[in-house]
Amino acid sequence: MRKNSIKNTRINSEVMKDLADIIRSQIKDPRIAPMTCVTGVEVAPDLKTCKAFISVLGDDEARNKTLEGLRSAEGYIRRQLAQDLNLRNTPEITFIPDTSIEYGMHMSEIIDSLHTD
């Protein structure tokens, strides 16, 4: 299976939807910020690994605590994914902070400051 195949794209979207649901409604860890969003998921073609890009609204401390909480709940999250998805293998999840939203807001502020001058 190629990386950009239709099957892999479908698996990515299903894993992303279920992962967001698990983080939002099933994990009760107080370290995880309430405004945590799964912005993207890349499942390897062999279904062994998964990169989950996580965006957290807040400062660096909130982001670090949220990633720490998600990493400690990785086994539970993986077990829930295995129950929800019917895949041959349940991928190992690696949580990666996604700062693209913050970068976009920063660039927007710079552009706005140039317009006011």
Domain count, please report it: 1
End-to-end separation: 53 Å
**Count of helical segments?**
4
Radius of gyration, rounded? Answer: 16 Å
Beta strand %: 15-25%
CATH secondary-structure class: Alpha Beta
pLDDT average, as an integer?
89
- For this structure, the CATH topology is GMP Synthetase, Chain A, domain 3
Count the strands? 3
Low-confidence stretches: none
CATH superfamily label: K homology (KH) domain
Write up this protein.
The protein is an alpha+beta fold and 117 residues long. The protein has one domain: K homology (KH) domain (GMP Synthetase, Chain A, domain 3, 2-Layer Sandwich). 52% of the residues lie in helices and 19% in strands. The protein is built from 4 helices and 3 strands; from the N terminus they run αββααβα. It has a 3-stranded mixed beta sheet. Strand 1 and strand 2 form a beta hairpin. The longest helix is centred in the N-terminal third of the chain and has 20 residues, at 6-25. The radius of gyration is 16 Å and the shape is globular. The model has no long low-confidence stretch (mean pLDDT 89).
What is the topology?
Layout (H helix, E strand, L loop, with lengths): L5 H20 L10 E8 L5 E8 L3 H13 L1 H11 L7 E6 L2 H17 L1
Parallel strand pairs: 2-3
Antiparallel strand pairs: 1-2
Helix pairs in contact: 1-3
